[in-house]
Amino acid sequence: MGTFKECAVCGGEVVKRKVAKVLRGGQCEKSVKIQAEVCRRCGEHFYGPQAIKRFNEVRAKLKASDAPKTPWTNLQDKLDYEVWLLDFLEKHRNKDDEVFIEMSGNEQCVQIEIDSETSLASHYTAPLLDAMMPLTFVAVFKTLDMLFEWIIAENGKTVPRPFEHKVELLKQDLQLPPLFEHQPHLYKYAKALFCQLLLYRHAVVHENSFFVSEGTLTLSSAREGTSKTLTLNRKQVDCLGRFVRVVAGALTDKTVIDDYKDKMLRHYLDLLAPVHVLPTFGQQMPRFVHVKFTVPKQGPAFPVDLKNVREQVARSFPNQEAIFDLEVKGIEGEQLVEKWHFAPEEIPTFDVMTLYEASHEANRVELILP
């Protein structure tokens, strides 16, 4: 049994895999290989206590040179608690339906299963979820504030204390980190969220000018003589947490924003349009499908018919964009001998993928024997 039952970013299933992790200490860095639990849906990596202990040991050795801290390392130190808090709060959100397609390499039989778990937002836990919404709001704002303070410091500017002065600095032509340079919409919308949420920060932190009722968070602001109100439902508060969590992870090299994550973030931003008040993307949330493909050993190999898999996924969801990951179970006789997992971006584009017992080491999944 793994440490993590589900992904804190998207709620997907996690599997054990060996991954490479880049660690930084001061101005030094080192890549280490370690066991992690990887989300089958979005590829997010999660590490257990032993892995975290090793990370700390490696970072301590890298920092032994007493290299001065940079804004980047300061950002990581600051974000540790806020990101942990967003992870914790995420565990209590509603879980989406899980869709599984089971296929076999020697049969035409296809089984489709939709797993609808009991929602955590039942009448037993809804008050708890409501009570956590102001806390999520504050964690989101603090994380955004830290990210923009980091950008300001990276540009060699003194970080001002008043939030309004930070907003003025962000209007300048700043040098941005690679993530925002390559995906400028993330910076544009994150900055818009920060500026809009700033109006209501005091409502939660200092003024107690908010209330929560039946899955809705209402915040009031009377700054500068103008009374304004922002109303967020539980889904929008969840989307705020998820958006900021992924962007923070990408800026600290903990998360890679692939095609699926980018569409996921655009969908979240569409739901948050009343907050950022920028144009929407018209992005529907792609349907994520888990494909389980069982293939008997043929000679020394396990051939996987990827063309058939793609066609089956398309037939199953003709009116919705579907993205799938792939779990391959290699059997010899009736015995499971190998197992691999491929995230969406790792699945080859050709028609047939041939696996061998010693191949694709990075994608092999630990077998849990009875």
What's the short story on this structure?
The chain is α+β, with helices and mostly antiparallel strands and about 375 residues long. It has helices at about 50-60, 70-90, 125-155, 165-170, 180, 185-205, 235-250, 260-270, 275, 305-315; strands at about 15-25, 30-40, 45, 100-105, 110-115, 210-215, 215-220, 230-235, 285-295, 300-305, 320-330, 335-340, 350-355.
Task: Outline the structure in words.
By secondary structure, the protein is α+β, with helices and mostly antiparallel strands. The protein is built from ten helices and 13 strands. Strands 5-4-9-11-12 form a five-stranded mixed sheet. It has a three-stranded antiparallel sheet with strand order 1-2-3. Mean pLDDT is 82; it is low at 116-124.
- Main-sheet strand order equals 5-4-9-11-12
Measured by DSSP, the beta-strand proportion falls in 25-35%
Q: Uncertain regions: pLDDT < 50 for 5+ in a row?
A: 116-124
Number of spatially distinct domains? 3
Helix content: 25-40%
Order of helices and strands: EEEHHEEHHHHEEEHHHEEHEEE
Number of DSSP-assigned strands: 13
Shape: globular
The whole-number mean of residue pLDDT values reads 82
Gyration radius (Cα, Å) is 23 Å
Q: Termini separation (Å)?
A: 12 Å
Give a short account of the largest sheet.
5 strands, mixed
- Given helix and strand content, the structural type is alpha+beta
Total count of helical runs of at least 4 residues: 10
